[in-house]
Amino acid sequence: MANGNATFRHSNVALLGLTEILAPNEVTSQEFDDRLADTLSMLNLPTGLLQRVAGVYARRNWDQPNQFADGAIAAGKKALAEAGVSPDSIGLMVNTSVTREHLEPSVAVGVHAGIGLGSQAMNFDIANACLGFVNGMTLAANMIDAGQIEYALVVAGEDASRVQEATLARLTRPGISREEYLNEFASLTLGSGASAAVLGPADKHPEGHRILGGITRAATQHHELCVGDHNGMFTDTKGLLAGGMELVVAAWEEAHEDGWNWREMDRYVMHQVSDVHVNSITKAANLDPDRIPVTYPELGNVGPASLPITLSREASHLKPGDRILCMGVGSGLNTAMTEIEW
């Protein structure tokens, strides 16, 4: 069992800009089925598993794998423009992507240079699987509240094409077993895209959306259930779902004991994984499914960019005063829940 929630509350932080950059090329699950036809026949598995089990009908890819950084740069520029914040005002820029070309230097330095941020902007990567973007926002909000910076930019650019191709190559090799196939099934739900958010002081931006705070909780005894790199992602699907649900339910219940009131939010914006993931959390927390926007059917799982992309797409349907709960689980396992007042 995990050892309880970490709780954080923000006093003067607002979300000022939130944007998405859509990767240009759609790749359908039917295309994957076509490439896997011989394997599926050999293993006596049906076609359409990605669609029927995961609810993923398509995902997006860049023209070239390394364009994930260009996506993060474009998202950052767009978010700054939307927020009306000058690049020279940014005191912190955090890149939160899982995807990276190399171990050094950080992805952040290239994004910092590409956006044209000033020398005063601290820049580095935060890597925490699919929770990276939420973690980056929490760090930025804490630094704004502490008076260390005034404005922060959080970005994520993801590429899934190399994982997809490596996975398809293994799944079509002679002699693959049914168990091996199912252990890599989740890799084919991954997609590419980018997102960015600008945070700043709420008292200077009454038009902003207040970030009130939230909780995190760790269950790192499950750190071997989902392990991935550019060559593939290997997942104990049943173990990951069981461990993740145990973690989320424990965090959810303790958060309410600690004074959060999240049972009647206007929206629950989740990290986007699959039908199974969303339906399990919806049932366990007794949530209204009509208040849960989803993007995984057409975008797949875009890693840490998934949640902000989904919130960005939902923004036009929100009105001042709406209460939003951002909910995520990342491989490892960790969970986070953050409340935003629109």
UniProtKB/TrEMBL annotation:
GO BP term (any one):
secondary metabolite biosynthetic process
SUPFAM superfamilies xref list: Thiolase-like
Family annotation (InterPro entries): ACP_syn_III_C (IPR013747), ACP_syn_III_N (IPR013751), Thiolase-like (IPR016039)
Q: Where is the signal peptide?
A: none
| GO molecular function ontology, one term from the record | 3-oxoacyl-[acyl-carrier-protein] synthase activity
List residues of the Beta-ketoacyl-[acyl-carrier-protein] synthase III N-terminal domain: 124-211
Keywords tagged on the record: Acyltransferase, Transferase
Top-rank taxon:
Bacteria
Where the record annotates domain Beta-ketoacyl-[acyl-carrier-protein] synthase III C-terminal, the positions are 257-342
Query: Which PANTHER family does this entry report, sorted A to Z?
Result: 3-OXOACYL-[ACYL-CARRIER-PROTEIN] SYNTHASE 3 (PTHR34069), ACYL-COA:ACYL-COA ALKYLTRANSFERASE (PTHR34069:SF3)
Protein name (record): 3-oxoacyl-ACP synthase III
Q: Which organism is it from?
A: Brevibacterium aurantiacum
Q: What is the lineage of its organism?
A: Bacteria, Bacillati, Actinomycetota, Actinomycetes, Micrococcales
